[in-house]
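Co-fold these.
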Amino acid sequence: MIEFVYFAIFYVLCCFIAIWRLIKGPTAPDRVVAGDCVDVLTDVALVLVALYSGRGIYLDIAIVTAILGFLSQVLIGSYLEGTL
Amino acid sequence: MNLALRIVIDIFIVGGCFFALAGAVGIVRMPDTFSRMQSSTNITTLGVLLTLIGALLYCIFVWGSWGSAAKVIVIGILTILANPVGGHTMARAAYRIGIRPERELVIDDLADPEACVEPGSDAVAADECPAKAEQGGEEA
Amino acid sequence: METKRNTTFGAWLATFVLCYFFWILLTGSFAWQELVVGAVVSAGVALFSARWFVHEHPYWFFGKHLFILIWYCVAIFPWELLKANWDMAKRSLKPGKLDINPGIIRVPVDVPTEYGKTMLANSITLTPGTITMDIDERLGQTWYYIHWIDVQELDREAAGETIKGRMEKWIRRIWQ
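Predicted complex below.
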Protein backbone atom coordinates (compact mmCIF):
# COMPACT_ATOMS: atom_id res chain seq x y z
CA MET A 1 0.00 0.00 0.00
CA ILE A 2 1.42 3.35 -1.02
CA GLU A 3 0.68 5.33 2.13
CA PHE A 4 3.11 3.40 4.29
CA VAL A 5 6.07 4.95 2.54
CA TYR A 6 4.99 8.41 3.72
CA PHE A 7 4.96 7.21 7.31
CA ALA A 8 8.41 5.69 6.75
CA ILE A 9 9.64 9.04 5.44
CA PHE A 10 8.19 10.72 8.54
CA TYR A 11 10.15 8.35 10.77
CA VAL A 12 13.33 9.08 8.81
CA LEU A 13 12.73 12.82 9.35
CA CYS A 14 12.47 12.12 13.08
CA CYS A 15 15.82 10.34 12.69
CA PHE A 16 17.32 13.54 11.33
CA ILE A 17 16.09 15.48 14.35
CA ALA A 18 17.83 12.95 16.59
CA ILE A 19 20.97 13.07 14.44
CA TRP A 20 21.20 16.77 15.21
CA ARG A 21 21.55 15.89 18.88
CA LEU A 22 23.99 13.13 17.93
CA ILE A 23 26.28 15.64 16.25
CA LYS A 24 25.92 18.45 18.75
CA GLY A 25 25.57 16.55 22.04
CA PRO A 26 28.05 17.83 24.61
CA THR A 27 28.83 14.50 26.33
CA ALA A 28 29.20 10.89 25.27
CA PRO A 29 25.98 9.57 26.91
CA ASP A 30 23.98 12.14 24.96
CA ARG A 31 25.38 10.82 21.73
CA VAL A 32 24.77 7.20 22.70
CA VAL A 33 21.15 7.87 23.63
CA ALA A 34 20.56 9.78 20.40
CA GLY A 35 22.20 6.98 18.43
CA ASP A 36 19.94 4.42 20.07
CA CYS A 37 16.92 6.51 19.12
CA VAL A 38 18.12 6.63 15.52
CA ASP A 39 18.48 2.85 15.62
CA VAL A 40 14.96 2.26 16.95
CA LEU A 41 13.40 4.71 14.50
CA THR A 42 15.24 2.99 11.66
CA ASP A 43 13.74 -0.31 12.81
CA VAL A 44 10.24 1.02 12.52
CA ALA A 45 10.97 2.65 9.17
CA LEU A 46 12.24 -0.73 7.93
CA VAL A 47 9.03 -2.46 9.03
CA LEU A 48 6.98 0.16 7.21
CA VAL A 49 9.11 -0.21 4.08
CA ALA A 50 8.52 -3.96 4.26
CA LEU A 51 4.78 -3.36 4.31
CA TYR A 52 5.06 -0.89 1.44
CA SER A 53 7.17 -3.04 -0.85
CA GLY A 54 5.61 -6.35 0.11
CA ARG A 55 8.95 -8.05 0.80
CA GLY A 56 9.42 -9.85 4.08
CA ILE A 57 13.22 -9.65 3.96
CA TYR A 58 13.19 -6.17 5.53
CA LEU A 59 11.66 -7.64 8.68
CA ASP A 60 14.72 -9.87 9.19
CA ILE A 61 16.99 -6.86 8.79
CA ALA A 62 14.91 -5.01 11.38
CA ILE A 63 15.31 -7.86 13.89
CA VAL A 64 19.09 -7.85 13.46
CA THR A 65 19.22 -4.07 13.78
CA ALA A 66 17.26 -4.20 17.03
CA ILE A 67 19.65 -6.76 18.54
CA LEU A 68 22.74 -4.84 17.43
CA GLY A 69 21.47 -1.55 18.81
CA PHE A 70 20.86 -3.12 22.20
CA LEU A 71 24.33 -4.69 22.26
CA SER A 72 26.07 -1.46 21.29
CA GLN A 73 24.26 0.53 23.95
CA VAL A 74 25.08 -1.90 26.75
CA LEU A 75 28.69 -2.25 25.61
CA ILE A 76 29.32 1.49 25.42
CA GLY A 77 27.60 1.92 28.78
CA SER A 78 29.85 -0.55 30.53
CA TYR A 79 32.88 0.89 28.76
CA LEU A 80 32.09 4.38 30.03
CA GLU A 81 31.51 3.02 33.49
CA GLY A 82 34.86 1.23 33.44
CA THR A 83 33.55 -2.25 34.18
CA LEU A 84 34.13 -3.76 30.76
CA MET B 1 -9.32 -3.79 1.63
CA ASN B 2 -11.85 -3.25 4.30
CA LEU B 3 -12.37 0.43 5.08
CA ALA B 4 -12.81 0.04 8.84
CA LEU B 5 -9.63 -2.03 9.07
CA ARG B 6 -7.73 0.58 7.12
CA ILE B 7 -8.95 3.36 9.40
CA VAL B 8 -7.91 1.40 12.49
CA ILE B 9 -4.43 0.72 11.08
CA ASP B 10 -3.98 4.36 10.14
CA ILE B 11 -5.03 5.53 13.60
CA PHE B 12 -2.43 3.28 15.21
CA ILE B 13 0.35 4.40 12.86
CA VAL B 14 -0.48 8.09 13.19
CA GLY B 15 -0.41 7.73 16.98
CA GLY B 16 3.00 6.14 16.74
CA CYS B 17 4.23 8.98 14.52
CA PHE B 18 2.97 11.53 17.04
CA PHE B 19 4.83 9.98 19.96
CA ALA B 20 7.99 9.51 17.88
CA LEU B 21 7.92 13.18 16.93
CA ALA B 22 7.35 14.16 20.58
CA GLY B 23 10.35 12.08 21.66
CA ALA B 24 12.62 13.43 18.94
CA VAL B 25 11.69 17.03 19.73
CA GLY B 26 12.20 16.30 23.42
CA ILE B 27 15.70 14.97 22.77
CA VAL B 28 16.63 18.26 21.16
CA ARG B 29 14.86 20.57 23.62
CA MET B 30 15.58 19.03 27.01
CA PRO B 31 18.33 20.80 28.96
CA ASP B 32 20.37 17.98 30.55
CA THR B 33 21.43 14.41 29.89
CA PHE B 34 18.99 12.58 32.14
CA SER B 35 15.99 14.51 30.87
CA ARG B 36 17.03 13.61 27.34
CA MET B 37 17.01 9.97 28.36
CA GLN B 38 13.47 10.40 29.64
CA SER B 39 12.40 11.79 26.30
CA SER B 40 14.06 8.98 24.41
CA THR B 41 11.92 6.52 26.35
CA ASN B 42 8.97 8.18 24.70
CA ILE B 43 10.23 7.00 21.32
CA THR B 44 11.18 3.52 22.37
CA THR B 45 7.85 2.66 23.96
CA LEU B 46 4.72 3.99 22.35
CA GLY B 47 6.35 5.53 19.29
CA VAL B 48 7.44 2.05 18.30
CA LEU B 49 4.68 -0.09 19.75
CA LEU B 50 1.69 1.65 18.21
CA THR B 51 3.20 1.49 14.73
CA LEU B 52 4.12 -2.15 15.23
CA ILE B 53 0.55 -2.93 16.27
CA GLY B 54 -0.64 -1.33 13.05
CA ALA B 55 1.88 -3.33 11.05
CA LEU B 56 0.81 -6.50 12.88
CA LEU B 57 -2.83 -5.96 11.92
CA TYR B 58 -1.78 -5.36 8.32
CA CYS B 59 0.35 -8.52 8.26
CA ILE B 60 -2.43 -10.68 9.68
CA PHE B 61 -5.50 -9.39 7.88
CA VAL B 62 -4.14 -8.17 4.54
CA TRP B 63 -1.11 -10.35 3.87
CA GLY B 64 -2.47 -13.31 5.79
CA SER B 65 1.12 -14.21 6.62
CA TRP B 66 1.64 -15.55 10.15
CA GLY B 67 5.41 -15.71 9.74
CA SER B 68 5.64 -11.97 9.13
CA ALA B 69 3.28 -11.36 12.05
CA ALA B 70 5.56 -13.42 14.33
CA LYS B 71 8.57 -11.42 13.17
CA VAL B 72 6.82 -8.14 13.93
CA ILE B 73 5.91 -9.44 17.40
CA VAL B 74 9.54 -10.45 17.98
CA ILE B 75 10.73 -6.96 17.01
CA GLY B 76 8.31 -5.47 19.53
CA ILE B 77 9.31 -7.83 22.32
CA LEU B 78 13.02 -7.23 21.64
CA THR B 79 12.54 -3.49 21.81
CA ILE B 80 10.54 -3.73 25.01
CA LEU B 81 12.98 -6.10 26.72
CA ALA B 82 16.23 -4.57 25.49
CA ASN B 83 15.75 -0.85 25.85
CA PRO B 84 15.29 -0.56 29.62
CA VAL B 85 18.49 -2.54 30.16
CA GLY B 86 20.41 -0.14 27.95
CA GLY B 87 18.69 2.75 29.70
CA HIS B 88 19.83 1.57 33.13
CA THR B 89 23.37 1.12 31.88
CA MET B 90 23.58 4.52 30.27
CA ALA B 91 21.97 6.36 33.19
CA ARG B 92 24.28 4.74 35.73
CA ALA B 93 27.35 5.30 33.57
CA ALA B 94 26.41 8.93 33.00
CA TYR B 95 26.05 9.51 36.72
CA ARG B 96 29.27 7.72 37.60
CA ILE B 97 31.49 9.49 35.12
CA GLY B 98 30.44 12.71 36.76
CA ILE B 99 27.78 14.23 34.54
CA ARG B 100 25.48 16.50 36.53
CA PRO B 101 22.74 18.76 35.20
CA GLU B 102 23.44 22.47 35.08
CA ARG B 103 20.37 23.33 37.05
CA GLU B 104 20.40 21.97 40.57
CA LEU B 105 18.42 18.79 41.17
CA VAL B 106 15.50 19.08 43.52
CA ILE B 107 16.65 16.07 45.49
CA ASP B 108 19.73 13.92 44.90
CA ASP B 109 19.83 10.77 46.96
CA LEU B 110 22.68 9.25 44.96
CA ALA B 111 24.97 11.97 46.27
CA ASP B 112 24.54 10.42 49.71
CA PRO B 113 27.93 8.87 50.57
CA GLU B 114 26.30 5.64 51.75
CA ALA B 115 24.27 5.39 48.57
CA CYS B 116 25.59 2.48 46.56
CA VAL B 117 27.86 0.66 48.97
CA GLU B 118 28.16 -3.09 48.69
CA PRO B 119 26.85 -4.74 51.84
CA GLY B 120 29.82 -7.10 52.15
CA SER B 121 32.62 -4.59 51.72
CA ASP B 122 33.90 -3.03 54.92
CA ALA B 123 36.53 -0.65 53.54
CA VAL B 124 34.21 2.11 52.41
CA ALA B 125 35.62 5.30 51.04
CA ALA B 126 33.10 7.90 51.96
CA ASP B 127 33.78 10.21 49.07
CA GLU B 128 34.26 7.69 46.26
CA CYS B 129 30.99 5.87 46.22
CA PRO B 130 30.73 5.37 42.44
CA ALA B 131 34.07 3.61 42.22
CA LYS B 132 33.21 1.28 45.09
CA ALA B 133 30.06 -0.29 43.78
CA GLU B 134 31.26 -1.86 40.60
CA GLN B 135 28.86 -4.75 40.71
CA GLY B 136 26.22 -2.78 42.51
CA GLY B 137 23.28 -2.68 40.19
CA GLU B 138 21.11 -5.34 38.78
CA GLU B 139 22.77 -8.03 36.77
CA ALA B 140 20.64 -7.80 33.71
CA MET C 1 28.22 -14.20 39.41
CA GLU C 2 31.14 -15.66 41.33
CA THR C 3 29.30 -18.70 42.57
CA LYS C 4 29.42 -21.78 40.40
CA ARG C 5 26.10 -22.71 38.91
CA ASN C 6 25.00 -26.11 37.77
CA THR C 7 22.90 -26.83 34.71
CA THR C 8 19.65 -28.52 35.61
CA PHE C 9 17.57 -30.39 33.06
CA GLY C 10 14.64 -28.02 33.38
CA ALA C 11 16.79 -24.98 32.69
CA TRP C 12 18.35 -26.77 29.72
CA LEU C 13 14.93 -27.66 28.32
CA ALA C 14 13.60 -24.12 28.66
CA THR C 15 16.64 -22.62 26.93
CA PHE C 16 16.47 -25.29 24.21
CA VAL C 17 12.85 -24.53 23.43
CA LEU C 18 13.55 -20.81 23.21
CA CYS C 19 16.58 -21.26 20.94
CA TYR C 20 14.67 -23.67 18.70
CA PHE C 21 11.78 -21.25 18.41
CA PHE C 22 14.15 -18.51 17.27
CA TRP C 23 15.77 -20.87 14.77
CA ILE C 24 12.46 -21.77 13.19
CA LEU C 25 11.43 -18.13 13.16
CA LEU C 26 14.56 -16.91 11.43
CA THR C 27 14.93 -19.73 8.92
CA GLY C 28 11.22 -19.81 8.17
CA SER C 29 11.18 -23.28 6.63
CA PHE C 30 10.11 -26.69 7.86
CA ALA C 31 12.36 -28.91 5.74
CA TRP C 32 13.68 -31.79 7.81
CA GLN C 33 17.35 -30.97 7.26
CA GLU C 34 16.81 -27.50 8.68
CA LEU C 35 14.92 -28.89 11.68
CA VAL C 36 17.65 -31.44 12.51
CA VAL C 37 20.48 -28.91 12.23
CA GLY C 38 18.48 -26.46 14.32
CA ALA C 39 17.89 -29.05 17.03
CA VAL C 40 21.59 -29.91 17.23
CA VAL C 41 22.70 -26.28 17.36
CA SER C 42 20.03 -25.34 19.92
CA ALA C 43 20.98 -28.28 22.14
CA GLY C 44 24.64 -27.22 22.08
CA VAL C 45 23.89 -23.57 22.78
CA ALA C 46 21.48 -24.49 25.58
CA LEU C 47 24.05 -26.79 27.16
CA PHE C 48 26.55 -23.98 27.47
CA SER C 49 24.31 -21.05 28.31
CA ALA C 50 21.41 -22.45 30.37
CA ARG C 51 23.15 -21.98 33.69
CA TRP C 52 23.31 -18.24 33.19
CA PHE C 53 19.94 -17.94 31.55
CA VAL C 54 17.61 -19.61 34.07
CA HIS C 55 18.34 -19.03 37.73
CA GLU C 56 15.23 -20.23 39.44
CA HIS C 57 12.55 -22.79 38.96
CA PRO C 58 11.98 -23.06 35.19
CA TYR C 59 8.39 -24.33 35.17
CA TRP C 60 7.19 -21.63 37.53
CA PHE C 61 4.79 -20.02 35.13
CA PHE C 62 2.65 -23.00 34.25
CA GLY C 63 -0.14 -22.21 36.65
CA LYS C 64 -2.25 -19.27 37.60
CA HIS C 65 0.81 -16.98 37.47
CA LEU C 66 0.72 -17.14 33.69
CA PHE C 67 -2.74 -15.62 33.56
CA ILE C 68 -1.79 -12.87 35.98
CA LEU C 69 1.28 -12.13 33.85
CA ILE C 70 -0.77 -11.95 30.67
CA TRP C 71 -3.32 -9.69 32.34
CA TYR C 72 -0.48 -7.45 33.54
CA CYS C 73 1.07 -7.26 30.07
CA VAL C 74 -2.23 -6.68 28.29
CA ALA C 75 -4.16 -4.37 30.58
CA ILE C 76 -2.33 -2.91 33.58
CA PHE C 77 1.01 -1.94 32.07
CA PRO C 78 -0.22 -0.46 28.74
CA TRP C 79 -2.59 1.81 30.60
CA GLU C 80 0.20 3.17 32.80
CA LEU C 81 2.37 3.48 29.69
CA LEU C 82 -0.26 5.45 27.83
CA LYS C 83 -0.83 7.88 30.68
CA ALA C 84 2.88 8.53 31.23
CA ASN C 85 3.58 8.84 27.50
CA TRP C 86 0.85 11.42 27.05
CA ASP C 87 2.14 13.40 30.01
CA MET C 88 5.72 13.37 28.72
CA ALA C 89 4.69 14.25 25.15
CA LYS C 90 2.78 17.25 26.47
CA ARG C 91 5.83 18.39 28.41
CA SER C 92 8.20 18.18 25.47
CA LEU C 93 5.89 19.62 22.82
CA LYS C 94 4.59 22.56 24.86
CA PRO C 95 5.96 25.83 23.49
CA GLY C 96 7.74 28.21 25.79
CA LYS C 97 9.59 27.31 28.93
CA LEU C 98 10.01 23.63 29.71
CA ASP C 99 7.89 22.39 32.57
CA ILE C 100 10.35 20.06 34.26
CA ASN C 101 11.57 19.68 37.80
CA PRO C 102 14.08 16.81 37.88
CA GLY C 103 15.52 15.01 40.86
CA ILE C 104 16.90 11.66 41.97
CA ILE C 105 14.95 10.01 44.77
CA ARG C 106 15.33 6.78 46.67
CA VAL C 107 12.20 4.71 47.07
CA PRO C 108 11.64 1.45 48.97
CA VAL C 109 10.59 -1.65 47.03
CA ASP C 110 8.97 -4.81 48.33
CA VAL C 111 9.04 -7.51 45.64
CA PRO C 112 10.22 -11.03 46.51
CA THR C 113 12.44 -12.56 43.82
CA GLU C 114 15.24 -11.32 41.55
CA TYR C 115 13.11 -11.66 38.45
CA GLY C 116 10.41 -9.60 40.10
CA LYS C 117 12.87 -6.86 40.98
CA THR C 118 14.20 -6.80 37.43
CA MET C 119 10.69 -6.69 36.05
CA LEU C 120 9.65 -3.81 38.28
CA ALA C 121 12.84 -1.87 37.44
CA ASN C 122 12.25 -2.39 33.74
CA SER C 123 8.62 -1.33 34.06
CA ILE C 124 9.64 1.85 35.85
CA THR C 125 12.27 2.62 33.22
CA LEU C 126 9.88 1.98 30.36
CA THR C 127 7.43 4.48 31.80
CA PRO C 128 8.51 7.86 30.42
CA GLY C 129 9.34 10.28 33.19
CA THR C 130 11.11 7.83 35.47
CA ILE C 131 14.40 5.95 35.07
CA THR C 132 15.76 3.44 37.56
CA MET C 133 19.41 4.33 37.99
CA ASP C 134 20.66 1.94 40.65
CA ILE C 135 19.58 -0.77 43.06
CA ASP C 136 20.74 -0.87 46.62
CA GLU C 137 20.08 -3.48 49.28
CA ARG C 138 20.83 -2.74 52.87
CA LEU C 139 19.30 -3.76 56.18
CA GLY C 140 17.07 -6.24 54.40
CA GLN C 141 15.29 -3.56 52.41
CA THR C 142 15.66 -2.98 48.67
CA TRP C 143 15.93 0.56 47.43
CA TYR C 144 15.71 1.91 43.92
CA TYR C 145 17.34 5.19 42.93
CA ILE C 146 14.95 6.76 40.48
CA HIS C 147 15.48 9.82 38.32
CA TRP C 148 12.13 11.56 38.20
CA ILE C 149 11.42 14.35 35.77
CA ASP C 150 8.78 16.05 37.84
CA VAL C 151 9.34 15.65 41.55
CA GLN C 152 6.06 16.13 43.34
CA GLU C 153 6.81 14.42 46.64
CA LEU C 154 9.93 14.64 48.74
CA ASP C 155 8.81 11.96 51.18
CA ARG C 156 10.16 8.61 50.06
CA GLU C 157 7.15 6.42 50.82
CA ALA C 158 4.70 8.76 49.16
CA ALA C 159 6.98 9.23 46.16
CA GLY C 160 7.22 5.47 45.82
CA GLU C 161 3.44 5.17 45.82
CA THR C 162 3.20 7.87 43.13
CA ILE C 163 5.90 6.34 40.91
CA LYS C 164 5.07 2.67 41.18
CA GLY C 165 1.32 3.02 41.23
CA ARG C 166 -0.50 -0.20 40.58
CA MET C 167 2.49 -1.94 39.00
CA GLU C 168 4.16 -3.08 42.20
CA LYS C 169 1.02 -4.71 43.55
CA TRP C 170 0.50 -6.75 40.40
CA ILE C 171 4.16 -7.78 40.09
CA ARG C 172 4.14 -8.93 43.71
CA ARG C 173 1.07 -10.96 42.89
CA ILE C 174 2.86 -12.60 39.95
CA TRP C 175 6.03 -13.57 41.77
CA GLN C 176 4.76 -14.89 45.05
